[in-house]
Specification:
Helices cover 55% and strands 0% of the residues. By secondary structure, the protein is an all-alpha fold. It starts with 25 loop residues before the first helix and ends in a 15-residue tail after the last helix. The chain binds zinc ion. It holds the Pfam family LANC_like.
Length: 410
């Protein structure tokens, strides 16, 4: 039993007619998490590397996100000040890394993600000049990904490739509530990404009309795989309706991925697992915890019930097997899986899912979790560590607008 990747979930689902309230230890728990992070991870240059995923830019994002939560209004200015402090080491690192030109558009691991968050933070504090400076740097970075294969490892996925760049561009526009990028520039990146996937799929005779590889692995999950690439192309407003041929291939690829959902509700990590023993990973990065955002987007676009059913099925699996031993974080931890319930809550309005999200929060504070969960390598970071957990806890105060970072499909 100790070999399981997850803690068995012994909690009950919400009973009918039971009122649902915000857990009373939620606010104090979140404030404790923030104290831990600021005590243990200082905003100094050696902590600024590895972008939003592991570096101080991820902490800056977390404070920026918290500054927008009404329940923490009293700390609004303090959180923005912290965001600015944690941003600085990451910006210093970006200057050093801008010599490695081809990595610059990297959203989760490199410069572009740091520029995006800088744009939002400077906008929030009313520094228009700095905000514009980072918009320009973000746009400059985008010129590099107009070459189809600008990276040798794979140029289309979320962490370093075009999908990540698109994700950041859409996020910046939604944070600044204005059009920053030319529509034709975003469309060109979509077109290139579709073309790249189509060529790859033809060359390797993929059963999916679009397929991609990252370091020679045809990943399917949100981490480096097909699902997030499709999700961000589909998120560019108007692209599908003005490019019917691409839309046809995108939808067929979404449906192919849907056909891979197993009886339990999970998805294989990569194409080389098909017909083999599966990894059974139920994470955001690999498996059901991340693929759901694609199907939620598909449901919102095409309004076909099968996509919603796929998300619900994945949600039921995560309820059973999503209390991961790997830790409390977003990428492969309890908070990342907890966000699936917040997604389902927004899709359905059903309190059952909000209750499930609360249960995942409460589980983080059980002896069972505190004693037996692993501590991630980067225990305070946004994607592996407590900064991501803090975002999840904060979003429980505003479930109507909650979303996994950079993955709001609504
Ligand atoms: Zn992961």
């Amino acid at each position: 039993m100790s070999r399981l990747r997850y803690f068995p979930n012994r909690a009950s689902d919400l009973q009918p007619l039971t009122p649902l309230e915000i857990p009373n230890n939620l606010k104090s728990s979140l404030l404790d998490v923030l104290t831990k992070i600021t005590n243990k991870l200082k905003p100094v240059e050696k902590n600024g590397e590895d972008g939003l995923y592991l570096g101080t830019a991820g902490i800056a994002y977390m404070f920026y996100h918290l500054s927008k939560i009404p329940a923490f209004k009293e700390y609004h200015n303090k959180y923005l000040e912290n965001a600015l402090n944690y941003l600085q080491p990451a910006l210093l690192v970006c200057k050093r890394f801008s010599i490695h030109k081809n990595d610059v558009p990297s959203f989760l691991l490199g410069n572009a993600g740091v520029y995006a968050v800088a744009t939002a933070i400077y906008n929030a504090i009313g520094d228009g000049a700095q905000c514009n400076k980072y918009i320009e740097l973000y746009k400059d970075a985008g010129k590099l990904c107009t070459k189809m294969h600008f990276l040798n490892c794979g140029s289309d996925e979320l962490f370093v490739g075009r999908a990540g760049y698109l994700c950041g561009a859409l996020w910046m526009e939604s944070e600044l509530k204005s059009r920053i990028f030319k529509v034709e520039d975003l469309y060109e990146l979509c077109r290139l990404t579709v073309e790249s996937g189509r060529k790859y799929a033809q060359q390797y005779r993929s059963p999916s009309p679009l397929m991609y590889a990252y370091y020679n692995v045809e990943y399917l999950g949100a981490g480096h795989g097909l699902c997030s690439i499709l999700q961000y192309i589909m998120s560019v407003p108007g692209y599908l309706s003005s490019n019917p041929k691409d839309a046809t291939d995108i939808k067929a690829s979404v449906d192919y991925l849907l056909s891979l959902q197993d009886d339990e509700g999970n998805f294989p990590t990569a194409m080389d697992e098909l017909g083999q023993e599966r990894n059974d990973l139920i994470h955001w990065c690999h498996g059901a915890g991340g693929v759901v955002y694609l199907f939620a987007k598909a449901y919102l676009i095409w309004n076909e019930d099968k996509y919603l059913q796929a998300v619900k099925k994945a949600g039921d699996l995560i309820w059973e097997k999503g209390l991961l031993k790997k830790g409390p974080g977003l990428c492969h931890g309890v908070a990342g899986n907890g966000y699936v319930f917040l997604l389902l809550y927004r899709l359905t309005g059903d309190n059952k899912y909000l209750h499930r999200a609360h249960v995942f929060f409460e589980f983080l504070y059980t002896d069972e979790f505190q004693t037996n969960a692993r501590t991630p390598d980067n225990p305070y970071s946004l994607y592996e560590g407590l900064a991501g957990t803090a975002c999840f806890l904060a979003d429980l105060f505003t479930p109507q607008t909650a979303s996994f970072p950079f993955s709001d499909v609504f």
